[in-house]
Amino acid sequence: MKGEVISTTGQLLGTVLAVQANFYRVQLEREDREQESKKAEENVNSDASVPVLLCTRRTRLKKIGQQVMVGDRVVVEEPDWAGGRGAIADVLPRQTQLDRPPIANTNQILLVFAVADPPLEPYQLSRFLVKAESTDLDVLLCLNKSDLVSPQVQQQISDRLLNWGYSPIFISVQNQINIDQAANYLNHKITVIAGPSGVGKSSLINALIPTANLRVGEVSGKLARGRHTTRHVELFELPSGGLLADTPGFNQPDLDCPPEELVYYFPEARERLAVASCRFSDCLHRDEPDCAVRGDWERYQHYLEFLDEAIARQIQLNQQADPESTLKLKTKGKGQSQYEPKLESKKYRRVSRRTQLQALQDLYQDEE
Ligand SMILES: Nc1nc2c(ncn2[C@@H]2O[C@H](COP(=O)(O)OP(=O)(O)OP(=O)(O)O)[C@@H](O)[C@H]2O)c(=O)[nH]1
Ligand SMILES: [Zn+2]
């Protein structure tokens, strides 16, 4: 039986597309939809094409504090086919979890940049790439507006990015170039789309999903704000299967990974470390002797700059977590305070490592 593939117990499984107040829009998995349309056939009033149920969360889940996120695969009970309602009874274990935007089970990040208008800035691109790599998800790179540059220029860009460890797909939403090729990479996956403003993200989503109807060419103004908040996340269904997250426009992503991890977010540096090791295991690849990473690769300068930033950030975090290295300010009563020795100095404690999958969060900042 087909249904057995996804559920051995005959449960209804679905994916949460959006969260609206206390309701969850759940798209049933294909096999279930066959069942559903069978049921719908039996019911004269129902619409056989409705694949989505508006669901509540069972009290039991609330009691155990089980959150339901967009992207979650859930067990749906008591489907009311005619009314399009149901109840979420369980959440399947998450494969991945992004915090900003909050999406479970994301497979990959699709970075969109333009080859021109706005011009392709290597440093900015590098930053987005490093941030995306730090999520540990697969990273896809699409370069839009290829209609604006010659094939020779495209080749130059392509050669350069190959040295960075990437094979970009050149697309033109305007001239419908390579859109199908890009779409192929999104099949049956949950993809988060990201990239700077004006590169054509909305245009691309509209080209991939004509029913999405996103506004194009709107400078992030007041109208756009409602949609562009991290709190509102929505997954759009791709016609050939797969889900795409429409995400807010965002600023320069912060690089907040621990400094010692940064190097792994450069594929070309990873390659060096795969074949050789640095003399010191805690090498930050600056001026340490016998470093396997330091060298004449193009983005080494980017690495050094991002490293400074990551170190500065870590120092700042340490200070926030521990403003006095050995003394703690204790407030007593009304405005009285005194320093007390700490029982345990946190001075040398490493900043707790954030889940890598949360690292994208600074990509998506509320525009407020
Ligand atoms: N020449 C050319 N222009 C394009 C192409 N794709 C999109 N554009 C134009 O680029 C501008 C920005 O497109 P959007 O889709 O709004 O860009 P966005 O990335 O969603 O921008 P934000 O919403 O600010 O993040 C619009 O004027 C589009 O018409 C393309 O392939 N070629
Ligand atoms: Zn090194």
Automatic annotation (TrEMBL):
<feature type="binding site">
    <location>
        <position position="291"/>
    </location>
    <ligand>
        <name>Zn(2+)</name>
    </ligand>
</feature>
<dbReference type="GO" id="GO:0005525">
    <property type="term" value="F:GTP binding"/>
</dbReference>
<keyword id="KW-0342">GTP-binding</keyword>
<dbReference type="GO" id="GO:0005737">
    <property type="term" value="C:cytoplasm"/>
</dbReference>
<feature type="domain" description="EngC GTPase">
    <location>
        <begin position="104"/>
        <end position="251"/>
    </location>
</feature>
<feature type="binding site">
    <location>
        <position position="283"/>
    </location>
    <ligand>
        <name>Zn(2+)</name>
    </ligand>
</feature>
<keyword id="KW-0694">RNA-binding</keyword>
<dbReference type="InterPro" id="IPR010914">
    <property type="entry name" value="RsgA_GTPase_dom"/>
</dbReference>
<dbReference type="InterPro" id="IPR012340">
    <property type="entry name" value="NA-bd_OB-fold"/>
</dbReference>
<keyword id="KW-0862">Zinc</keyword>
<comment type="subunit">
    <text>Monomer. Associates with 30S ribosomal subunit, binds 16S rRNA.</text>
</comment>
<feature type="region of interest" description="Disordered">
    <location>
        <begin position="323"/>
        <end position="350"/>
    </location>
</feature>
<comment type="function">
    <text>One of several proteins that assist in the late maturation steps of the functional core of the 30S ribosomal subunit. Helps release RbfA from mature subunits. May play a role in the assembly of ribosomal proteins into the subunit. Circularly permuted GTPase that catalyzes slow GTP hydrolysis, GTPase activity is stimulated by the 30S ribosomal subunit.</text>
</comment>
<feature type="binding site">
    <location>
        <begin position="144"/>
        <end position="147"/>
    </location>
    <ligand>
        <name>GTP</name>
    </ligand>
</feature>
<feature type="domain" description="CP-type G">
    <location>
        <begin position="95"/>
        <end position="253"/>
    </location>
</feature>
<keyword id="KW-0378">Hydrolase</keyword>
<dbReference type="InterPro" id="IPR027417">
    <property type="entry name" value="P-loop_NTPase"/>
</dbReference>
<keyword id="KW-0690">Ribosome biogenesis</keyword>
<keyword id="KW-0479">Metal-binding</keyword>
<dbReference type="GO" id="GO:0019843">
    <property type="term" value="F:rRNA binding"/>
</dbReference>
<dbReference type="GO" id="GO:0003924">
    <property type="term" value="F:GTPase activity"/>
</dbReference>
<protein>
    <recommendedName>
        <fullName>Small ribosomal subunit biogenesis GTPase RsgA</fullName>
        <ecNumber>3.6.1.-</ecNumber>
    </recommendedName>
</protein>
<keyword id="KW-0963">Cytoplasm</keyword>
<dbReference type="Pfam" id="PF03193">
    <property type="entry name" value="RsgA_GTPase"/>
</dbReference>
<keyword id="KW-0547">Nucleotide-binding</keyword>
<dbReference type="InterPro" id="IPR030378">
    <property type="entry name" value="G_CP_dom"/>
</dbReference>
<dbReference type="InterPro" id="IPR004881">
    <property type="entry name" value="Ribosome_biogen_GTPase_RsgA"/>
</dbReference>
<feature type="binding site">
    <location>
        <begin position="195"/>
        <end position="203"/>
    </location>
    <ligand>
        <name>GTP</name>
    </ligand>
</feature>
<feature type="binding site">
    <location>
        <position position="285"/>
    </location>
    <ligand>
        <name>Zn(2+)</name>
    </ligand>
</feature>
<dbReference type="GO" id="GO:0042274">
    <property type="term" value="P:ribosomal small subunit biogenesis"/>
</dbReference>
<comment type="similarity">
    <text>Belongs to the TRAFAC class YlqF/YawG GTPase family. RsgA subfamily.</text>
</comment>
<feature type="binding site">
    <location>
        <position position="278"/>
    </location>
    <ligand>
        <name>Zn(2+)</name>
    </ligand>
</feature>
<keyword id="KW-0699">rRNA-binding</keyword>
<dbReference type="GO" id="GO:0046872">
    <property type="term" value="F:metal ion binding"/>
</dbReference>
